[in-house]
């Protein structure tokens, strides 16, 4: 497998996808943010001064997926056809985040799903940092990818 974001002179380039077929593509990414148990309880009970943490993180993640090409230089701008985020509150102090992004296009949406999870986690951190500066974002990864030349990938 060769790296495709470099030209023959070793310089960065955006991959030319002109000749690729348009297919339905889906990417699912996951990650988590760890926090003090009391921070999780305040999120659960809606007692964070800045508002509904998970609702804001959900919107932020979707917005981030749509802006990925503005953040990561070699990503193609994509007409995303669907994006959703879900959160699972895990005792004693963890929120698991999952993003699923869909497109019908010539290139995949892995980076968009990973960006959605990352920004959702950062939004949770931002909204709760006044009460818990010890939060840790970790384990962001591609869980599944469908479509395109490389086919179906599921992380073990």
UniProtKB/TrEMBL annotation:
<dbReference type="Pfam" id="PF01967">
    <property type="entry name" value="MoaC"/>
</dbReference>
<dbReference type="GO" id="GO:0006777">
    <property type="term" value="P:Mo-molybdopterin cofactor biosynthetic process"/>
</dbReference>
<comment type="subunit">
    <text>Homohexamer; trimer of dimers.</text>
</comment>
<comment type="similarity">
    <text>Belongs to the MoaC family.</text>
</comment>
<comment type="pathway">
    <text>Cofactor biosynthesis; molybdopterin biosynthesis.</text>
</comment>
<keyword id="KW-0456">Lyase</keyword>
<feature type="domain" description="Molybdopterin cofactor biosynthesis C (MoaC)">
    <location>
        <begin position="14"/>
        <end position="148"/>
    </location>
</feature>
<dbReference type="InterPro" id="IPR050105">
    <property type="entry name" value="MoCo_biosynth_MoaA/MoaC"/>
</dbReference>
<feature type="binding site">
    <location>
        <begin position="74"/>
        <end position="76"/>
    </location>
    <ligand>
        <name>substrate</name>
    </ligand>
</feature>
<dbReference type="InterPro" id="IPR023045">
    <property type="entry name" value="MoaC"/>
</dbReference>
<keyword id="KW-0501">Molybdenum cofactor biosynthesis</keyword>
<dbReference type="InterPro" id="IPR002820">
    <property type="entry name" value="Mopterin_CF_biosynth-C_dom"/>
</dbReference>
<feature type="active site">
    <location>
        <position position="126"/>
    </location>
</feature>
<feature type="binding site">
    <location>
        <begin position="111"/>
        <end position="112"/>
    </location>
    <ligand>
        <name>substrate</name>
    </ligand>
</feature>
<protein>
    <recommendedName>
        <fullName>Cyclic pyranopterin monophosphate synthase</fullName>
        <ecNumber>4.6.1.17</ecNumber>
    </recommendedName>
</protein>
<dbReference type="InterPro" id="IPR047594">
    <property type="entry name" value="MoaC_bact/euk"/>
</dbReference>
<dbReference type="GO" id="GO:0061799">
    <property type="term" value="F:cyclic pyranopterin monophosphate synthase activity"/>
</dbReference>
<dbReference type="InterPro" id="IPR036522">
    <property type="entry name" value="MoaC_sf"/>
</dbReference>
<comment type="function">
    <text>Catalyzes the conversion of (8S)-3',8-cyclo-7,8-dihydroguanosine 5'-triphosphate to cyclic pyranopterin monophosphate (cPMP).</text>
</comment>
């Amino acid at each position: 497998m060769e790296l495709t974001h470099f030209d023959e002179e070793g310089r960065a380039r955006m991959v030319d996808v002109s000749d690729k077929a348009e297919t339905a593509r889906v990417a699912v990414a996951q990650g988590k943010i760890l926090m003090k148990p009391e921070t999780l309880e305040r999120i659960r009970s809606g007692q964070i001064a800045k508002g509904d943490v998970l609702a804001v993180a959900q919107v932020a993640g979707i917005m981030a997926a749509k802006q990925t090409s503005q953040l990561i230089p070699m990503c193609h701008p994509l007409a995303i056809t669907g994006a959703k985020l879900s959160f699972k509150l895990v005792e004693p102090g963890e929120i698991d985040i999952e993003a699923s992004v869909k497109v019908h296009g010539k290139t995949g949406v892995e980076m968009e799903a990973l960006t959605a999870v990352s920004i959702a986690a950062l939004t949770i951190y931002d909204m709760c940092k006044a009460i818990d500066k010890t939060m840790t974002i970790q384990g962001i990864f591609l869980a599944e990818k469908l479509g395109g030349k490389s086919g179906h990938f599921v992380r073990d």
